[in-house]
Amino acid sequence: MNIQLVKYKSALVISLLLLCFGCAPEDLDFDQTSDFETKPVYKVYLSDFIPEINVTIPQISTGGNSITYNQTIDVFNKSLFDNTVTKAELNFLITNKINSKFTLEIQLKEGPNVFDAFTINVPAHTGVDFNQNFIKTYPEVQINSLKKVDTVIIKVICDNITASTSQSIKISTRLTAYIKP
Questions:
Q1: What is the enclosing helix (H) or strand (E) of 179?
Q2: pLDDT above 90: residue 117
Q3: Are the C-beta atoms of residues 144 and 48 closer than 8 Å to each other?
Q4: Which long-range contacts (CB under 8 A, 24 or more apart) does 7-16 make?
Q5: DSSP letter at 75?
Q6: Mind listing the pLDDT tens digit for each residue in 55-97?
Q7: Looking at the DSSP assignment, which residues form a beta bridge with residue 153?
């Protein structure tokens, strides 16, 4: 008999014996479904937690290559954001109708302190309407800090534009809260 075949059969027999003796029936839990708990989570949308922003190119060109929007908000201090929120998502829907790429710099502030800052790069308009959807997610451990946010600063930075450009940029927002009952 071939030596490799003997080694293979021996390894197979040993593996099967270990498998059989390693799975003792008294350790098996056939009642796992009764141990499983489900709790519903409600998904709540608050549209326009920042009023819709329409940026025209003349606004930007008179201020250099950028324009800043400073918006005071009170949505996070509402009773919706009590201890039942498990996750929050800030959703930014951006429509670029200019033939130039641009950048959004967004800061969430609590008084003078910056809670979070992030950048969204938006590609140039190519003739086809293009909506970019950007979602920033905050898990449950950050909700208490998010509740203290009172100001949102959005800075729109465009390059390669002139005062004769006549298109615009539209920024819409939505807050999604995941609430446990």
A1: strand 168-179
A2: yes
A3: no
A4: none
A5: G
A6: 776 655 555 677 788 888 877 766 666 668 888 899 999 888 8
A7: 70, 107
- Which one-letter amino acid corresponds to residue 141? V
Cβ atoms of 60 and 161 closer than 8 Å: yes
pLDDT of 101-113, one tens digit each? 888 899 999 888 9
List of residues 6+ apart from 150 with CB closer than 8 A: 72, 73, 74, 76, 77, 109, 110, 111
Task: Report the C-alpha gap between 40 and 55 in whole angstroms.
Answer: 40
* Cβ-based neighbours of 177, under 8 Å, separated by 6 or more: 43, 44, 46, 80, 81, 85, 87, 88
Question: What's the rounded Cα separation, in Å, for the pair 44 and 177?
Answer: 5
Q: How far apart are CA 124 and CA 158, in angstroms?
A: 10
Please state, in angstroms and rounded to a whole number, the distance separating the CA atoms of residues 111 and 93.
26
Terminal Cα-to-Cα distance of the chain (whole angstroms): 69
